Structure formats: structure tokens, C-alpha cells
Structures
1.
Amino acid sequence: MTPIVSYQNVTKTYGDLEVLKDIDFNIYPGEKVALIGPSGSGKTTLARLLMTLEEPDSGIIEVENKNLWQEEVGGELVKAKEKHLREMRKSIGMVFQHFYLFPHMTVLKNVMEAPMTVLGLSKKKARQQAEEMLEKVGLSDKLDVYPAQLSGGQKQRVAIARALVMKPNIMLFDEPTSALDPELVGEVLDVIKEIAFESDMTMLLITHEMDFAKEIADRVAFFNEGIIAEQGDPEELFNNPKTPRLQSFLSRFNS
Amino acid sequence: MERLTTYEIFISLIKAGLKVTIQVTFFAAILALVLGFISGLARMSRHRTIRFISGVYIEVFRGTSLLVQLFWIYFALPMMGIRLSALTAGVLAIGLNYGAYCSEVVRSAIQNVPVGQTEACIALNMTKTQRMVKVIIPQAFVMMLPNLGNQLIELLKSTSLVSMITLTDLTYQANILNATTFETTKVYTMLLVIYFIIGLPLSKGVKLLEAKVSEGRV
């Protein structure tokens, strides 16, 4: 099977800090991959490169067999222009740790905006789809409310609806519950689980919720200091970690 | 010489000068706002030349006196063959001057919109223009309003300078009245009162607009 996302020798540094060291990593269509690891180990950067929020220093990222950050002009590979990036982004959606809802729009408008401006849907059609999506995340009673009046868990569910309504083939979740109060984590994880189980969307989940990762992931990759230190089947990886680094990382969650 | 009552002075000032003061304020404010948005956005352009041009405009008009700019446009430009009416010259000078200040207000508000908003737009595949129009500027606008309101009041007060280039605004009329009646205290007190009265609805209006655009967000 050909991968839907493929990182080849990808490197990224911030100043002196090498956050991704020569990463080779494939994600296959429909696969749910969980990325775990300590903060600053490179998980988030991996997702941000894919969402075109940041550019790799070197290496190639392919999405659906097309080069994400480069395009061919006159037989030569050059840095991709905005037009190419916009074409590529059609396949990818992202949910952020801090939601980034549009504070000046109601919940409904937050979800309707991109389908109307980006996909060119009619207002009626966009509204219908937004309402369906918000019902799915359990927020049908909050359509006309502004984000400031929502709890963190509700905000994140709106953000999930906003990303899903664009129908991406690949969804990235960047620590979707890390900014939430503990009692609100469950409602967001439940929504993500439901999506994971019922859709054939490819999902990349960066998370610190180990039980959640174990439950929904087809594969778990453990990041440490810019490399993938260990990866494999969730049961195997959690119950029988091979590297000392993963053993000590997991022991902190089993107390 | 007949003695005028305070009320008569008030009416006389308003009759002769209010129209010009309001005209200059209105058109100069529109010009300043338009220039402020254009040069504020241009200051953040990807193209160096555009950034440079807008930078020069801002520095020149902030760095020199409004009165001198006014004299220059009204008295010096005609020497180069560009003759403007006093009203046009007044509106142009004040609009250009306050436009330079407004552009800094616009730029700093836009840069203060959290970067996460831009990232959310990218993740939703919006174009750069869509990001600006739908997401960034509406949020920046709320932040700029108090500052733009201050600029508007400042602009209103600065219109008194157009009396120096023969425009019969409130201040010009006050000077005439003072010279003919010697009621100095009454005349200039009434002049203060009138500027204050015009300024009041402006600051109230901006407050109302602020409340309106930030409705439900806090």
C-alpha cells in the first residue's frame, strides 16, 4: 500500500535546537496514528510541517503522492508557491491545542465561514452542513453563542466541527485536550473517538492521553529528542516498551 | 461699539464658522482613515518598495509640523503650479497628517491579532486576502477603535489651524469677533465650549460603535 503521507529525511531546526532529525515516517490511508513523547520532542512540529504552517529545512514531505513543499517548474524542483500549497491543503485539516476559534463570529458562523469563502458553498448549504456537524459534536444548542461564552471543551468541539466540515482526507489533532480542565477532557476525547471509529479519514493524533491513544490508534510512535525512538502496535508498545527512554516515559503515566 | 451678549457671540460663531469646521473635520477624517488603512497595510507588505514608500510617507508627515504642512500645501505648492482651494488644502494637509498617525494605529492593531488566528485560517485553506478581510481586520478593528476615536477628536481640534489659510472656520470667526468687539474672554470661552460640544458626540459615537462591534465577545 502506498502511504498517504510520507516524510523523507525531514529535518527542522529552531536556532540551535534540532527539533526533527532526519525523520522518515509514513502514514497509510485510513490509519489512525498517535504520536506520544515528552514536550519539545518534535511531535507538534511534525504536524505543523504537514499543515504548511512551517517549512522543513530539508527533506521531502509527500501528501497523496505529491510533493508538499516543492513543485516542478520547467523540470526543476523549486519552493512551492501559495497556489500549490492551497491545492495541497485541501486534503488536510487541523485541530489546535488552543482552539483558535474566531472570537468575532458565533459558533455557527465559525463553522460556516470556510465552506462559504473557501469552497464557495451557498449560505443555505453551508448552514445545513454546519448544523449537522455541530449536532455531531453535541453543540446544537450553542449555534448563536460566541466562543467567549463556551467552556474549553465546548470550544474544542466547535474547532473539531470547523475542521471536519471541510472534509479533509487527513486530520491532525495537536494535543486537543492539553489546554483543558481535567473534567472537560472526556467530552472532547469522546467526540474524537466517535470520528475515529466511524470514518475512514486518516488521523494523526498528538496526545498525552495514553489510554486514549491505546484505544483508538492503529499505531503509536514515540518521539524523543527529534527522532522516532520506538513505534508499533499500541498494545505491544504500551505493554512491552523496548527502549529505556519509553519505559521511563510511560512509567510516569502509570503511577 | 455695541456690546454683545454671550449668547449672541455663541450664535455668531456658529452661524459663520461651524459649517467649515465640520466640513474640514468630516472630509479630513475620511481621508485620514482611508490613508491610514492603506499605508498601515502597505507597511506590512511583502514587497520592499511598498513598505519603503509607506514608511517614508509616515515618517515625513509625523515628523514635521501640521501647521507647516498646511502652509506648504497652500502657499508653496502654487509656486510649482499646483493651486488648491483653501478648503482642499486644509482637508489634504490634515488628512495626510492624521493618516500617518492612523496607519500606525492600524498596523499595531493588526499585528496584535494572535498568530493562532492566522494559523487557523491557513488550516482552513483561506487565501491571504480572505484571512485579512474575514478574520484579521474585523478583530483588529475592535482594537483600533479607541485609538482611532482619540485621533478623530485630535483631528477636530487641529482643524482650528485652517483659520491660518483664510478659511472662515470657528477659530477664524472667533478672531474676527475678538478684533471687532474686544470681548476676548467671552469669545474664546464660547469657542472652547463649541469645540467641546462638537467633540462630545464624536467620542460618544466611537464608544457606541465599540460596544456594538464587540457585542457578545467578552
2.
Amino acid sequence: MGPVPSAYASGVDVAALLVLLTEFAMLRAPQLRSQVRLYAFQSLVVVVLTAVTGAVRGHPDLYILAALSLLLKVVIVPAVMLHLLRELDVGQLHHPAGGGGGSMVLVAIAASLFGFFSLRSLGLHSKVLPTATLSVAVAIVLVAFVLVVLRSDVVSQAVGFFSLENGVSIVSMAIAAGLPVVVEVSFLFDLLVAAVAFALIMRAHHARAKTLSTEALDRLRG
Amino acid sequence: MSQPVIAPAGVQALQVLTVLFGAPLVSGATSKVEALMQGRRGPRVLQPYYDLAKLFRKETVVPEGASWVFLAGPVVAFSSYLTVPLLIPVLTSYGLPLGYMGDILGGGMLLALGSFATALAASDSGAPYAQLGASRAMAFSALAEPTLLFVFFVVAMLTSTDLPYALAATVRSTSEAVRPSHVLVAAAFFLVVLADTGRIPVEAHAGTLELGMVDEARTLEHSGAPFALIKWGSALKQLVLYTIFINVFVAPWGLASSGKATDVVAAVFSLLGKALLLGVVFAVIDNSFSKLRLFKVTEFLAAAFLLACLGVVVFYLGGA
């Protein structure tokens, strides 16, 4: 097969894979709280990846992005979510989703395989990050979709949405070593808006259904 | 001034002897560290040697109705664990005469043969707990097998051979050590080692509750010299797995590149040092997690399989 990739390329790929594995861990996390903590960890990996890419590729503006993401994605959003979970006092365990945990993971593996296969057949190559990173990032986005679709509680949907953004920022780094800072910062602002919206949804849903499970929405009331 | 040189056959014998006599030391030191972390004083580091010496002096009691299989099992297991160090890089970075006798699958087969012999002996004893342990151990090792196979696939693809020496050499010479597929299969192999050596989160190896036992329960009926062989054998298996993990996957440095006596002696100490470090890592894991419920063990092994799967996928589709 091909030549052994350089240490930098391998390191980037390992970091992207770590993000993918956290995504799988979120899918299997029994507690809502641990899901939020996993998100904080995942964001931290993305922040480190951003800073390292900035240093290696000589884009100092990526440092600003890394600092802002650190503040927002690793500290503020998880803290707000954890605070909300404490306040709503919904208990620790998540409500069993439709389908067993094992089949959820299988669906996620299939989704990530689809990401790998489709990216390979497209034959895209990036000058900045190794090709594998792009495939892994697409797999992250797809598994985040699986998380949003299959786990039936509001927290998973929020966390899935947020981690989708992590996947997208790895994609943007893989393609262009970061978009212009204005675009990236507006992404972050978007995330902040989403965090506020999800906090509202969590509160409203909890106030009406006394639970964070979305299964309560399936019952028709006429 | 020329240094004394040890003949290849001598080095090969030394590989086996190092594992044979170093294994109780590694498990003794690990349990000492574990005890210290829990605020206990713990047994002496040399305690496993005293235990073995005591057991060899004791008489052997055979359960009623047990056949020769019961007594042969420990011997077969012990000798197959002892054959593996011939095949893997324990002390040297170059292949020794018998090193190419079997590949990584051969080593895996010998390890499986060892646990099969132990399980057979346990079943032959006719005791319920021993049989329970045997069937559990077989079930879990069957679940760990696909992971091992995928790990071997990746090794074979990375090096175009399936010799442990070749992978170690590749890891030493290039940036292979941080290559994503290699990192993933190394992590998967680590989880399998955790499961195969009977550590938390799969089994509380110091526990005394028969219902929670997996590997330990198999030996409940043994006594005297065969029991000593089994205990020694499990220490051997542990050190063999540690050695494969260290010298093939993670840190194949500090091995002797020639037969010079000083190099070889240094390699013995570096192997034992690295194994002790890994033992400390295992002790930390032991103290920071709780044992999984029996039916959750499958999920643990599935996680290992996920890692190995991703390793294959990343290599094939990402070229990384």
C-alpha cells in the first residue's frame, strides 16, 4: 500500500479518530451528564487540532479561533448544559431509546463506513490535511446525525447538534486550513444561538412533559 | 578488547528463561503497587516466588472421577506459554534461529492452546465452579478472537508479513508508531490484554467470590504442583502478552541488536523495566474502574472490536 504518512499527518488523523470515537462513546453513554462531558472533551481535542494546524501551517488567525472555541465549546456551553441538567433534576439515567444500544452502534458503524467509502470514491485530496482526515470528519458528521436521530432525549439531540459543528470545523480545516476567521466566528456565534435555543427547548419540554425524553411527543393528544 | 558474545541459541534460551523467571516478579511488583495505591502495605514483591516454592512442596489432590486430563492440562498450558517467547522479540531486535518457526498467528494459537488445556482440566474436575469458570473463559476468549484477527490483519497489511519481528522493526524505523491504523489496533490489543489477563474491568483478579470469577474459577480444584504450574503459567501468559504489547506494538526500543553479553543483559533489564511500567498502568486501571457486570463484558470486547474495525477501515479507505 501507500507510503507511511508523516508524523504530523498521523497525529492529525489520530486526533480526528479520537473525535470519532468520542462520538461513538456519546452514543453509548448511559448518563446525560457524561454525554455533555464527552462533548467538552471532544471540543478540547478539536481546539488542540485547530491550534496545532495553525502552528504547523502558519495561520496565526487559527489561534484566535482556538481560543474562542476553547472558551465557548469547552467551558461555557458544557457548563450551561450541566447547570440546566442539575436544575431540572431529571435523574441520571437516560431514557432507553428505540432499538437496543448494540444496533445503534451498528447503524453508526454503517454510517461511518458510508462516509469513508463515499469520500474515497470522490477522490478528493487536500494539500493541508491528509485525505484520511476528511473521511474521518465526514464520518463524525454522519455519526452525529445518527446520535440526533436515534437517541430520544433532548440532551442527546443538543449534544449531537453541537458535535456536528465539531465535525464541520474539522472538515473546514481539512479543506482550507480554516475558513476566514469571520466565517468561523460566525459559526461559533451560531453555536451560541443554538445553545440558547436548546436550553429553551429543554426547559419548555421539561415543563410540559416532566421529562427530557422525546418519546412523550409521540403520544397524540386530541 | 572484545566483549563476550552469546551464541544465538543461548540468547534464545535466555529469552525463555527471562520470561520464566521474570514473570512472578512482574506480577508480584504489580500487586505491590496496587496495594500501595489502596493504602495497604501489600505482599512482598517476591511473594509469588515463595508461593510457588510452597505449592511445589505440597501434595497433589485429585478430585474423584478426574482423569489424566486434569493433571496433564496444567503441564500443557505451562509449556505452550513457555514456547511463545521463542517466537516473539523478547530480548533481540533481530530474528533468532527458531524465531521464524511460527508467525504471529502461531503465537496466538499457542496462547489459545494454553487456555484450552486449562479449561479442559477444569471441566474434567467435575466441580461446578471450575466448569463455570472454564465455560465463561472460553466464551469471552471466543469474543476476543475476532478483535485479535483484525489486529493481525492490520499488522500483516502494514508490514506485508505476519512476523512480530517485522512489525517491531517497522515501528522502530518510521513514524509508524503514530500511524492511525497502528494506534487503533494497539489500543484494541491493549483492551484484549486487559481481558485476557483477567484484570478489571473484566474480572476482579483478587476477588474471592466464585460467582464473579472468570479465569480464577478454573483453578479452584487444583492443588500442589499442578496448581503451582497454573499460577506460574498465568504469570507467564501475562508477561508474554505484556512483551508482545511492548516489544511489538508500542515501544520496541531497548532491545539487543547483537549477541554481545552487555547488550543482552541490558535488554533483560529494559524488558523487565518496561513490563513493570506497564504493570503500574494496569494497577492504575484496576484502581480507577469497577468490574463490569458479566453481561457487560461483551460490550467491552465489542468496543475493542470497534477499534480494530476502524483500524482496518482507516488503513484501507484512508491509506493512513
